[in-house]
Amino acid sequence: MIKKGPDLATGTRIFPVSPGSGLSPALPSMVVVNSHIDQPELWLLNLVDALIKAMIGLLQRVSRATVAVDGETIGEIGRGLLVFVAVHRDDEERDISRLAERILGYRVFGDAEDRMNRSLLDDDLGLLLVPQFTLAADTKKGSRPSFSRASDPEKAERYFQRLVQECRERIPVVETGQFGANMQVTLTNDGPVTFWLES
């Protein structure tokens, strides 16, 4: 029996009626089960949470950006992109390549008419990738973030380093922050221009 649904508004799950099932022919072709849910809005929030399984990149167009650890600058770019990166607990290997493709190809730089038609792949610009697990926080309720959706540190670091590697294979200037460190990030947002990307 093939499940149809659930209905997004109520959480109702709907199943087709199979021939010979013994159900009355007067019934419609679809039968509703689990039709009573005490808090359908909570069910919908849980469904949305389950569907959020994307590697995150918070992209900012900058005229300059630096990242320092213990007072020492470890990454610095001029004009280009600063991207904060977070890994979701359910991300897969394919999400790494997909996010790299989106970051490198996202058209946020002006052309001759100052329209956003150019990307890092079109111009000789810098990319600064900074790991930031807080982007994966669940902030729907309460006054403190929950990080249950974030990946474990080992997987997150592995995925971040793979992302860095894929970007370095395609453009010449890729700087990074330090995974797990207390970093101080300084930037001049050009525009301002900021985009939330998902793999």
How is this fold's topology laid out?
Layout lengths: L12 E4 L13 E4 L6 H12 L4 E14 L2 E6 L2 E7 L6 H13 L3 E2 L5 E3 L7 E6 L21 H16 L5 E3 L6 E16 L1
Parallel strand pairs: 5-8, 8-9
Antiparallel strand pairs: 1-2, 3-4, 3-5, 3-10, 6-7
Helix pairs in contact: 2-3
Compose a concise summary of this entry.
This protein has 199 residues and is of the alpha+beta class. The protein contains 3 helices and 10 strands. Strand 6 and strand 7 form a beta hairpin.
Task: Provide a descriptive summary of the structure in words.
The chain has 199 residues and is α+β, with helices and mostly antiparallel strands. It has 2 domains: 13-49, no CATH class; 53-198, D-tyrosyl-tRNA(Tyr) deacylase (D-tyrosyl-trna(Tyr) Deacylase, Chain: A, 3-Layer(bba) Sandwich). The chain is 21% helix and 33% strand. It contains 3 helices and 10 strands, in the order ββαβββαβββαββ. It has helices spanning 40-51, 93-105, 153-168; strands at residues 13-16, 30-33, 56-69, 72-77, 80-86, 109-110, 116-118, 126-131, 174-176, 183-198. A hairpin with a 2-residue loop joins strand 3 and strand 4. The longest helix is centred in the last third of the chain and has 16 residues, at 153-168. The relative contact order is 0.20. Mean pLDDT is 83; it is low at 1-5, 8-15 and 23-37.
